[in-house]
Amino acid sequence: MKSNPEMTIGDVAARFGLAPHVLRHWEAMGLLSPARAEGDRRHYNRNDLYRIALILRAREAGIGLEDLREMLAAAEPPARRKILHRHRADLVRRIAQAQASLELIDCALTCDHEDFASCAHFRAMLTERVEQVSPTLPASQVRARRGD
Predict the structure, then answer these.
(1) Contacts 24+ apart (CB under 8 A), 118-125
(2) How many CB atoms lie within 10 A of CB 42?
(3) Nearest-10 crossing angle of helices 120-131, 77-110
(4) For residues 42 and 8, is the Cβ–Cβ distance under 8 A?
């Protein structure tokens, strides 16, 4: 087996569960640059596979393609770190929200009450959300919610 085998766009798309047009789009955005061979056909090597895996993982983390392109194109590490720090903070927030949701589901699954939604323990887990005031609410609605 060659140390750096080349694959077609169809092979790579199938390997990652993507449609070929997704790889073409990423190439058009400058995120990928596969080698070209006879008939202008794309040929992907192992380095391209790592780049695709990076793009997919970044997308899973909530990093948009524009930010990813900017980060990968940045010549200076501080520019890359700035983007990564911003996305890290967002990812930490989303993980905390997902953890709270998981705890709520676990509470409902282990609740002995006939209607877990009326359980005091279950409701206590929701109190912060009930009391939370949206920053987009008009002041009159905020006062009404507080009972002012």
Answers:
(1) 125/100
(2) 21
(3) 150
(4) yes
Can you tell me the distance from the alpha carbon of 77 to that of 40, in angstroms, rounded to the nearest whole number?
34
DSSP element (H, E) containing 42: strand 41-43
Residue type, 26: W
Q: CATH assignment of 9-63?
A: 1.10.1660.10
For residue 64, the one-letter residue type is: G
Distance CA 84, CA 62 (A): 11
How far apart CA 121 and CA 45 sit, in angstroms, is 55
What would the 3-class secondary structure string for 65-85 be? HHHHHHHHHCCCHHHHHHHHH
CB 9 within 8 A of CB 42: yes
Spatial CA neighbour of 76 closest among 64, 84, 87, 88: 84
**Are the beta carbons of 34 and 42 closer than 8 angstroms?**
yes
Q: What tens digit of pLDDT does each residue of 49-106 get?
A: 999 999 999 999 999 999 999 999 998 999 999 999 999 999 999 999 999 999 999 9
What pTM did the predictor assign? Answer: 0.72
Residue 1 has pLDDT above 60, yes or no: no
Name the DSSP letter for residue 19. Answer: -
